[in-house]
Design goal:
This protein has 73 residues and is mainly α. Helices cover 74% and strands 0% of the residues. The protein starts with a helix and ends with a helix.
Amino acid sequence: PLRLVEALRDIALPERQAEVALLLALGRTHEQVGDELGISRSTVVYHRRQIYNRLGVDSHEALREQLLAAPRH
């Protein structure tokens, strides 16, 4: 998880999107992310779309792979 956090910091997503991205990359479902962050499932889906578009990925697994492959600073 620390490597994922570092990669997200380097990408400089807005704070809420970074939180959503981290939880998705850790394998959480939309419902779990919403429950953990106190937001609705539809808000999670909205953020997920924004994250995926920005990073050019199309799945939780692809998101995780891209974050883990990001160069570390």
